[in-house]
Amino acid sequence: MDEKLAKGHYDLMVLDVMMPGEDGLSICKRLSAEKRLPIIMLTALGQDQDRIVGLEIGADDYLPKPFNPRELLARIKAVLRRAPEEMSEAGALSGRILRFGGLALDTDAHVITDRDGNRVQLTTADFRLLTVLLARPRTVLSREQLLDLTAGRAAGPLDRTIDNQISRLRRKIETDALRPTLITTVRSHGYSLNADVEVIA
Amino acid sequence: MDEKLAKGHYDLMVLDVMMPGEDGLSICKRLSAEKRLPIIMLTALGQDQDRIVGLEIGADDYLPKPFNPRELLARIKAVLRRAPEEMSEAGALSGRILRFGGLALDTDAHVITDRDGNRVQLTTADFRLLTVLLARPRTVLSREQLLDLTAGRAAGPLDRTIDNQISRLRRKIETDALRPTLITTVRSHGYSLNADVEVIA
DNA sequence: GGGTGCCTGATACAAAGCGCTACAATCGCG
DNA sequence: CGCGATTGTAGCGCTTTGTATCAGGCACCC
């Protein structure tokens, strides 16, 4: 599945939960975090709790078995109706250069260039954090989410990792690091990138 | 309902089907044709057929009664998650400059600029409160509403949080904080923003 | 017109959140 | 195996924010 997803383009995924190997919920969590692929969960687990968990994890809809094929079809259409066309590729920042807030990020060289032509080298951590933010502009992301998306791990109770990395990233890309405008803090929620992102080439 | 819809901004509608007067399905059909307002149908009609019809008519989701409140909440969140940004209130105001009462609010930098060019930095709480007010100019909002909209929580019996935040916000944006003109107090009801709001760029 | 009670504005304070620095652990690279 | 760069952890201190409290103002009543 991962191979196919990486290669081709898909509009929507219908996902079972109980499967050998990786769990459907796990897949859903993984995908909804990194991609913007609409997901409909379709499973024998029909309890309220199962549905709630499925939806909270990032599924767009949840249909318990046994189901009416026509209902599945109707729900697929309903989900697709809401999904904007660009959404399928909005998260995939496959372009080489990304423009945002007066800066340009070279996704190959991991280099930021500002309007004056100054170049700053990003470390791998900088780059991953920035990429995650760029994939969801103008969206508040919690430290938990950011840590999961950048490092793939859960946050400890006193985890200040993301704060630190944000601080380091700001020093590299903000014009005035004391009053950041690109990456703003949303107190007790997380951080958000305040700029429109444009993919070039 | 139509009056309210025409006047204010709404992120999502939860709609019953069997109501006196106009039918829920009819409303749904009407709205999904003209507006792009996400709709969740919530009704006692739980047959496959009913669900399919509801979804095909334009509903984004369909939840039969009796329902688990947490599931409704999860489905609301799921629908909002995939709703395009411009439809939500935060999205409608993001990345813009808002003019009101001689001031300009930069919604990216969270900075207020007055006619003389003086700049004031808003805190997150300031900004959220102001944003909520700007979204509903010349409307009286109760403390309860404001607290719900800004912090998403309910007010305790002796909750003076909003009073305090209004006070702090006034100090930053009112020319004469002792006699406020922009944010006026409506005794025993709440507060209201007294200015027309103009969205720029 | 003056008292009375409720409502609001402002201040003070405590707690929580966050930015930043310093340092240790880890990684990458030869 | 060693060195430098990078990254996670700890902790200090400032800012922000919720709560308590007091004082002033408005409405209402007589």
Automatic annotation (TrEMBL), chains A, B:
Keywords, comma-separated and alphabetical: Cytoplasm, DNA-binding, Phosphoprotein, Transcription, Transcription regulation, Two-component regulatory system
Domain Response regulatory positions: 1-80
SMART domains: REC (SM00448), Trans_reg_C (SM00862)
Location(s), subcellular: Cytoplasm
Modified residues (4-aspartylphosphate): 16
GO molecular function: phosphorelay response regulator activity; transcription cis-regulatory region binding
Residue span, OmpR/PhoB-type domain: 95-195
DNA-binding span(s): 95-195
Record bears the keyword Electron transport: no
Keyword Ribonucleoprotein among record annotations: no
GO CC annotations on file: cytosol; protein-DNA complex
Protein's name in the database: Regulatory protein VirG
